[in-house]
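quick one if you have a minute, typing this from the bus. theres a chain ive been looking at and ive put its sequence and its fold in token form underneath. please have a look and point out which stretches look like helix strand or loop to you. anything you notice is useful, everything is just below.

***
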Amino acid sequence: MDAITADDMLMFINAATTSTAQREFHGGAEEQRLSLDFLHDYVIGNYRDLYAAALALDINDHNAALMVRKLLETTGDATDDQRRVEGALIARRLRVMPPQRVYDLFRALRRARVNNRRTRAIIREWVAARPDPAFDAVKYRTGLKRALRHAHVAPDGELGPFLFTGDHRRYDTPLLESWRRAHYEQASVYELPYTVAEGFAAKHRIDRATFLRRIEPRMTRLERLRVQQSARRDRADVAVDLGSMPLTRLASYVLSLPVPERVDRRGELTGALRAAAVRSAGRVAGEWGRVAAVLDDSFSAFGSAQKRRRPLAVALACHHLLAELATEYVPLWTSGRADALLTYPYGMTPLGDRVLDALEHAPDRLLIVSDGWDNAPYGLASEVLRVWRARLDPDRRVVAVHLNPVYDAVDFDVRRLTPAVPTVGVRDAEDVPALVEFARFTEGRTGSADLRAHFDDRVARFLEEG
């Protein structure tokens, strides 16, 4: 792997970590989609082995699905050895993706008329490995039916009649029978998955508060979180164990609450964020020494209507995680706020001033969580970091990393502040320890052989975990 290959792959990993082809604050959805599609086509065309290997990294599900689709669409371009490795990586990646994402992928393959032998085998193996076929048949009925047809698979037992004949005969499988009875019996509605039961509740005109109260035991953790606000409006109480939520998702939930409610629930919300951060920090808690963090809560941290407050949620989650990783921690929000729980997107982005403030604390590590649009004044952060690295820290005693949660479609990468400090894309705060380690490859202080070894190691571990 030469230097150009390494740069291309680092750019691709940043894009695959941050972009979901949705609108961002500084870029439209179509612009994002075209940019991302071009980057995928470029990388698979020039570095097919490394493109497939990226399935083992911490990329987001949107890009993982797109990569699987492109690998299967171009099966004829791969050698036998490449197809063998790709098949193992694809199978492993599909097992860790949410099932609805996988069914959407299968639908995309069907629309693109990708139906080669390898594609059919992968669909058959994934469907056969599903832990509860009846559950999938009820909750993802259309997706499962299309996938089976596309892969030329005849389901066993009662699934065939349930999916394809449309008759309402009695079923021996309890969940299928509950679905049948729910068409005319309200009691059976509460034996179904929440998303399916919701449709039957509307059909039977069941009071919303009554429905939520009785269906609560069937709801997943994320479903409980999503309906909590509407449940309160409907005078129903849906219990949510916030302390068990993933850190970044929990931060998104906190930011969705009105500021007065955050004040009223301060103890509960802060305790949950700290508990999630402790879990994420794990064994490296307290091992990062003195940490100073510049956290972007400027107006652009709102994100977009499709990714509402996502950049700010990453910053809030990083704030709590870094507090656990550090022995001494100094958070510096661009707005100047001191109360992280009450933060909201507002104002300009004075990154340069905050970086100066952070360096005054003589940290062991400097983390900057921002979309990189330094505009108060424009370019000050870049100049501060350049002079600091050149004059005050030429030996790079301080670990400095810019974590950017936003893809820049124009540059096919995340926006960088300066060549003096490495920039990596971040999707979830939980990935920060691994990303800070990965950032060393972007500084030019490690060889391309080290990056290849990193890819090989991640692939080996990824496949072993499966």
Q: What stands out?
A: The beta strands are 290-295, 328-333, 365-369, 399-404, 407-408, 413-414, 423-425. The longest helix spans residues 29-46. The radius of gyration is 24 Å.
